[in-house]
Amino acid sequence: MKKKNYAIALVCILFFLSPLVFNAYWVDVLNNIGIYAILALSLNFILGDTGLFHMGHAAFYAVGAYTTAILNTMYHIPVIWLIPFSGLTAAIFGYLVARPIIHLRGDYLLIVTIGIVEIVRIALVNNIFGITGGSNGIFGISRPHIFGLVIRRPEQFFYYIWIFVAVSVYLFHRLRNSRFGRALNYIKEDEVAAEGTGVNISRYKLIAFVLGAFWAGMVGNIYASKMTIISPESFTFWESVVLFCIVILGGSGSINGVILGSFLLIGLPEIFREFAQARMLIFGLAMIVMMIFRPQGILPPPPRKYRIPSIN
Amino acid sequence: MELFFQQLTNGLAIGGIYALIALGYTMVYGVLKLINFAHGDLFTLGAYIGFTLLTSFSLVGKMGPLPTLALYGLLIMGLVGVAGIVLERVAYRPLRSADRLAAVVSALGASIVISNSIMLIYGARFQVYPHHLLPDITLNMFGMKVPFLRMLMLVLSIVLMAILYLFVQKTRIGTAIRAVAIDHGAARLMGIDVNRIISIVFFIGPALGGAAGFMVGLYYGQLNFMMGWLYGLKAFIAAVIGGIGNIPGAMLGGLLLGVIEALGAAYISIAWKDAIAFFVLIIILIVRPTGILGERVADKI
Amino acid sequence: MKRLMLFVAAILMAFSSGTVFAKAPIKIGLMCPETGSWASEGQDMEKIVKLLAQDINKKGGVLGRRIEIIVEDDGGDPRTAALAANKLITRGIVAVIGTYGSSVTEATQNIYNEAKVIQIANGSTAIRLTEKGYKYFFRTCPRDDEQGKVAAKTIKHFGFKRVAILHDNTTYAKGLAEETRHDLEKAGGVKIVFFDALTPGERDYTTILTKLKSENPDVVFFTGYYPEAGLLLRQKKEMGWNVQFIGGDATNNPDLIKIAGVDAAKGFMFLSPPVPQDLDTPQAKAFLKAYVAKYHSYPSSVWAVLSGDALLAIVKAIRGTHSTDPDKLAYYLHYKLKDMPGLTGKISFDAKGDRVGDLYRVYKVDAKGHFVLLPRF
Fold this sequence. Notes:
The structure holds three protein chains of three kinds.
Chain A: H1 2-16, H2 18-21, H3 24-49, H4 57-75, H5 79-98, H6 106-125, E1 138-139, E2 145-146, E3 149-150, H7 154-176, H8 179-189, H9 191-196, H10 201-227, E4 229-230, H11 237-251, H12 255-271, H13 279-293
Antiparallel strand pairs in A: 1-4, 2-3
Chain B: H1 2-32, H2 39-56, H3 60-63, H4 65-92, H5 100-122, E1 127-128, E2 138-141, E3 144-147, H6 148-170, H7 172-182, H8 184-189, H9 194-220, E4 222-223, H10 227-242, H11 247-267, H12 273-287
Antiparallel strand pairs in B: 1-4, 2-3
Helix pairs in contact in B: 1-6, 1-7, 1-9, 1-10, 1-11, 2-4, 2-5, 2-9, 2-10, 4-9, 6-7, 6-9, 7-9, 10-11, 10-12, 11-12
Chain C: H1 2-16, E1 26-32, H2 39-58, E2 67-73, H3 78-89, E3 95-97, H4 102-114, E4 118-121, E5 137-139, H5 144-157, E6 162-167, H6 171-187, E7 191-197, H7 206-214, E8 219-222, H8 226-238, E9 244-247, H9 255-260, H10 262-265, E10 269-272, H11 282-295, H12 302-321, H13 326-336, E11 340-342, E12 345-347, E13 361-365, E14 371-373
Parallel strand pairs in C: 1-2, 1-3, 3-4, 4-5, 6-7, 6-8, 8-9, 9-10
Antiparallel strand pairs in C: 10-13, 11-12, 13-14
Helix pairs in contact in C: 2-11, 2-12, 3-4, 5-6, 12-13
């Protein structure tokens, strides 16, 4: 066991040194992977841990990103302070949206979430309340300032993003093994039994949604300050599809799986750039093949283990 | 008032197409409980096969437009139906015993594969069907001008749907399909070859979608490898509104969606038209999740 | 354990191989949509730029060096474009051509600017792209406000009083629609009876046309793209409605006639920079001949042709400054490049990087489906 831990630690250290080795392009690819990894972790909480069929995650991401963009460009509030606030607006939105639909059965929930993400996109394009900039989007979002350092280049964003990833992994790991996480797992495995033992499934499902939305909102902030411009094109149903696939392909419910999934789904099309026009075709084939040969995902969650204290 | 009826007929014609495509979604969902995200691309495939047939092997000169188109229509339905069977075998059957969501991912992958294959074969530019194959008559009905072809499209859609409905209700295979849709295990116990039935469903559904594609190509004239995306999504909404898994529901849902869209665009706003459609979808799912004609699904306990 | 280390080492090697530079040829990047909804534009851009580069190399190259075109797909979306830009700047390019779509280009502007790479966009007409003070950014395409002015002028010239404006909610089309409305309202004497958007990608516009018709306009100005324009014209004819349609420059594409049919397209007018077929400079004629010889068809999009002009401008600047230093090139392009004969006309850039010149002309479709250039008014 110990050897394995050393190996993982070594890989992590090497990974955190990678901006020194790779050029700006590959570092930026890693940044993208990082952003998607956090998003996928937040979706994993809803989809993988709780078993809610959710294909509208891009909507929460969009709300967070636009909150940051609007408040930053209109009131010049520094981006860093807006991180929790974006999460909050996304969480409130998540609550409002999830409240009426939380009791829906699996497939129907899936369909409704698709509808939600499309409505959000159309609202953004149509410049709802006059503040979203329509299909132009919003530009001129400032970069994050931490104690005077402006985070601007890919290498700097690398650390900014991947530290966030590390924090997210830690938090979600703790959540999963907490009482709350166990309740969610129970709901995923057998809703009726869970209800029978006194778990208030509606409340827990709703909290799962809201937490996932909160996290996605924060990522929206990071994305906005990295790109400095955002437009509705980045928040389509297709983005939700990509996140959904990352979670399922990587291993629904498994943190390691989801991170690996991000690497694959975001990194592979970049490696496939050689194939130019056939890029997406190969990607689609890869999706089908991956599912057929490993439907549980590449790194499915390990079964939960509980040590029984010795009986003596 | 005349405007209202004009928009109503506009909506019904579009709705007929949505209904045809929706039937494919609903039948597949009925037997496999799977949302076939690749269905819209099969619709596109039908349109493109029609394009190839009409531009490369056109028999119009020899046989006249109507028989040629009828022949091609059947041919396209057959070919797309076969494509549907292949799709099922390759992308869905191996995942029958796996988690439902794995099949969804596979479906999305299949959708990408089909649409990008079409792009690579036919090119990214728009393709156009030959014009003036069918007469451009405009009828005057109740004071409104309705192009003959639109009426024809609507009528054909309804005819196809009626045939399907009778097939499912009155024939043995149809009954078998309904049995498989209720429970695979019990159907097997009754001696039904479930795999064969599923293949049949994957022939019929896509065949109808292919027919819709051919009609769209003929009437609107313009093809693009991404066209299945929007139609597929709308048809999907239609199937859900009507009650997914329910055949008359798909027909009703399609027509209803077409009309809601047309009236929403006419009286509220064109730019928000699609949002209105999604909004209706959500309302129906909250208020009556099984759709307008959906069966009451018994709760587990 | 050993396998893991080998694996990690292999990945590290694979990733860092992109940093090897080559100095001999002059590398020019082409960022274009090879996949996605604008794939046809990107693929045409590639064909045109590569053909021109081939021709230049055959004649001895630039400063005695070969030109090498490095193509990266921007997928028609901002995020992929940003990745493409990051990839290109590591390849040692002197300049980049691209791209189509204002918001896509916008996502890459600061990447190229910080890397000091000259960027010449060919299909990005949003005004604000040149209002940010990016020294290395230029465009061979005009701006939305210029087209808006010409649109308003054209509408007034033909005496239309009730004007309907239809767009498709994209950055470009909506921008143009709003500019035109603004200019018309300033000029006075016309009433804007309709202003709304359709959804691109749909096929059935009868609902919108019926609604438009009920407002009784004299003219409909459609600022969207040619696939929708073709369908609008065709469906309008089916309804038996004869109102005049005017289109923006995104409707300029021979496929418009194919989609609408000659009968429906007859009489349609649109604004556009003149296409090579209508230029009588020897350069344009020679280019067309070579293009048709190689690809067996005409270039379909004037935007793709503008990418060819971008390449010509870069090459002229390199020759003119005898260097590939970005600051010298930028200075040359801003202040020294005057009336360079390009494929779409004379090319000069102003201090902001915009193309100078009165580019927009009015075209009309005749009974045979040909685009006829109307004389200036």
